[in-house]
């Protein structure tokens, strides 16, 4: 009897591995998103219970009752809904602070529930993104900012496979003022130094990068190592470091966030110089950036 000992070929095994890798890449973000929504649901249930406790006391004439709920969620702001309702009080995530609703929730945060005789129940949220040291908008997408500015429609950018828009070049750049014009009041880009870099072609959006540092590079000087937060065009975030570099335009000299980088391979090398982690949200990346700052206390702010 002839025994067939034929197995899988190497090509077949590689195809199976590739399919599994694609499925895992798709499943992980979805799982992470659903997990965060479940944390938010648990937080809301706990806050509603605290609301009921505070309101019961208020109905008995006791108005100084406060209940603090420790939050389970890991991301800044709400991910599960545009409007949150607790005990008849509804709040839109785009609405900002009101008499009854102050701040936004985040990782390691709390919700303090209290009662005010004039305005009613008050919810005060805190966490990464709303601490005293970080009042930035962690829901901001920097490439939405770039799109809204109209810079990508300019031929100097749209036909350029290696453009650079540096915030320190505002004196002679027509692009920097356009970007600054559309920044929100709590935009990270209103502080420190930033640069949009990469490929301006419409089909190469994933090859664009935003470099940001909390330091004023003109104060730091040339050839200094600085920490940077990076958003890549595919929506991923990274924390790394770069060397500041001198730029000249006519009689004007300024210090850029990094030396000249050529094509995406140059930018990817900067990413690889970092902590090796990929962050799926700005709040996560910023929290990691703040930890890295501890090693740069000698640099002038």
From TrEMBL:
- List the Pfam families hit by this protein, alphabetically: N_methyl
Q: Spell out the InterPro entries in the cross-references.
A: N_methyl_site (IPR012902), Pilin-like (IPR045584)
Membrane keyword on record: yes
Q: Which residues cross the membrane?
A: 12-32
UniProt entry keywords in alphabetical sequence: Membrane, Transmembrane, Transmembrane helix
State the coiled-coil residue ranges. Answer: none
Supply the SUPFAM superfamilies for this chain: Pili subunits
Q: Does the keyword section mention Nucleotidyltransferase?
A: no
Residues spanning the signal sequence? none
Name-wise, this protein is Pilin
Q: Tell me which species this is from.
A: Blautia faecis
